[in-house]
Design brief:
The protein is α+β, with helices and mostly antiparallel strands. It is built from 13 helices and 23 strands. β8 and β9 form a beta hairpin. About 1% of the residues have low confidence.
Length: 532
């Protein structure tokens, strides 16, 4: 017996698969104890349930699932229940008598057909052994051997008890190995998932679109670097707070953003968003996730301004070109009419109109072309010593005859000295400022141009008594195509490029330009040029 148990321990320990352990256990039994059936059951103490784990009948291994689970009965009612209660093995050579008690018994053939005995007939088995499987003194299962030919002896029972102990140890070892493999696989899967999440987070941090992950309560759970850059709100400030704290009026904003559900494609929508008092035009895409909604947004504010600038350009240029072109066309058609007898004076007036309006068309074209060249950096500006007062005097002399009779032009100063600049560009700036001062003084008044020597610069100022500029618009007047009256119904004629060109030229000469103004109290435009 000892040698058999040693051989059994060696063979049973050669595999770490529980089903193979059971197969080898049965093969070893076949040489030691005659039997036609082997059933290994497990016992769940918490549920009080006995379930089949392995079954072999008449040379065929059966699926454990065909055996219904049994509830643990009282001691003395059912052989397996008695073994579990007592923790002692049970041997009987009178199975037919034994199954007459009130326990639950099943007989099974090699095809897997179950019969409840003795209700559906007598059992096939004559002899049976029931051996407990123990772990730390507790019964965790039962091994059954059945034979229809020979009775079992106590010596055979002792042998089976030893083999069951060896088998139980081998199965526990195999289960432990399975659990370790499962834990290792779970750990590897967790590491892979963590790596994937980290990779995903890095990707989201690297993308150019802002990404905001909101939970079901609208609280920000993810806020990437691009979201910080677009909104100016750091991640540590946004995360953990309601998104409404970041986007003013978020409820109304979110109502206009379509949220993609399931595998439906997401649709982008561009909306104005108030972030910290700034209006941004953001393109939103939203996708519903299991725990909330993910919003991706892109800043299109500059593109929006560009589109507005294009629209302003078309409206302004169309307006500015229409009047002179209409005048030129009308005058030319009048001169060409054969049915009209025009005097020399009338013809001269019409030709003067054509010349004046053609000059205006040329000025509009030059302004547009110069603005484009400034944007491309193609405008050369010389940095030489220039007598600012002399340039002012020359410009005033040239522009005075062109001013309306209601405008009085006054020059003050005259002792500012030299500064660094380009005389031609300086004169162009002065002409623009004087032209603006005259146009925006509809009721007439005095336009004053003055020069002043500062510590490190020469300042030139042009002051009028016109309509003035609201404080909110004083910086915008230097933008391309900006008009105080966007509908072009009240503002004087002009492309809206004069002040933009003037500031750009001054800055290219190393200077700075600014404005001081109040509505209905006139405006003062000034610029400083550096001295050597």
């Amino acid at each position: 017996m000892a040698r058999l148990l040693l051989e059994a321990a060696r063979h049973l320990g050669e595999t770490l698969v529980p089903e193979r352990v059971y197969d080898r256990f049965r093969e070893i039994l076949a040489d030691a104890v005659p039997h036609e059936g082997v059933v290994v059951s497990s016992y769940d103490e918490r549920e009080g349930t006995i379930r089949c784990e392995y079954a072999w009948v008449d040379g065929e291994r059966l699926a454990p699932e065909i055996f219904p689970p049994l509830q643990l009965g009282p001691e003395g009612r059912g052989m397996q229940s008695t073994v579990i209660h007592t923790g002692e093995s049970l041997l009987t050579n009178e199975v037919a008598e034994r199954v007459k008690d009130s326990g639950t018994y099943y007989d099974v053939d090699r095809t897997g057909t179950l019969r409840k005995v003795p209700d559906e007939g007598p059992p096939e088995a004559r002899s049976a052994m029931m051996v407990p499987v123990k772990l730390e003194g507790r019964v965790v299962g039962v091994v059954q051997l059945m034979s229809s030919r020979e009775p079992y002896t106590r010596e055979q029972l002792e042998l089976v008890e030893g083999l069951v102990a060896q088998m139980a140890a081998a199965v526990r070892n195999a289960r432990l190995h399975e659990e370790q493999a499962r834990l290792a696989a779970a750990e590897a899967a967790a590491r892979a998932a963590a790596a994937e999440r980290e990779y995903g987070a890095r990707v989201l941090e690297a993308v150019g679109d802002g990404i905001a992950g909101l939970d079901g309560d609208g609280v920000v759970r993810f806020w990437n670097r691009a979201a910080e850059l677009v909104t100016g709100v750091p991640a540590d400030v946004a995360t953990g707070r309601p998104v409404a704290d970041v986007f003013t009026g978020w409820t109304d904003l979110a109502a206009d953003i379509p949220v993609s559900e399931g595998h439906a494609p997401a649709h982008a929508v561009t909306l104005p968003a108030d972030v910290g008092g700034r209006e941004l035009w953001l393109s939103f895409v939203a996708v519903r996730m299991r725990d909330g909604v993910v919003y991706a947004f892109r800043d299109l504010t500059l593109e929006r301004k560009l589109e507005e600038a294009k629209s302003d350009f078309i409206a302004t240029i169309s307006h500015e070109l229409r009047t002179p072109m209409t005048a030129v066309l009308g005058a030319a058609q009048t001169l060409l009419r054969p049915d009209l007898e025009l005097s020399a004076e009338q013809s001269r007036q019409l030709l003067e109109m054509i010349a004046t309006q053609a000059t205006r068309l040329s000025q509009v074209t030059e302004e547009v072309l110069l603005a484009g060249r400034l944007d491309r950096g193609d405008v050369r500006v010389e940095a030489t010593q220039v007598d600012v007062d002399a340039v002012v005097r020359e410009t005033v002399t040239a522009v005075r005859p062109q001013l309306p009779g209601t405008i009085e032009l006054e020059v003050r100063g005259g002792h500012a000295g030299d500064a660094l600049g380009d005389p031609d560009r300086l004169q162009q700036v002065l002409l623009n400022l004087l032209d603006n001062a005259a146009k925006y003084s509809p009721a007439g008044g005095t336009v004053v141009i003055s020069t002043e020597r500062l510590e490190h610069a020469v300042r030139v100022s042009v002051e009028d008594e016109g309509m003035g500029i609201p404080a909110a618009e004083q910086e915008r007047v230097f933008e391309k195509f900006y008009r105080a009256d966007p509908n072009l119904t009240r503002s004087p004629a002009g492309t809206g490029l004069g002040l933009y060109i003037s500031r750009e030229l001054v800055e290219r000469m190393g200077g700075r330009m600014g404005v001081r103004s109040q509505p209905d109290a006139g405006s003062l435009f000034h610029f400083d040029l550096p001295v050597r």
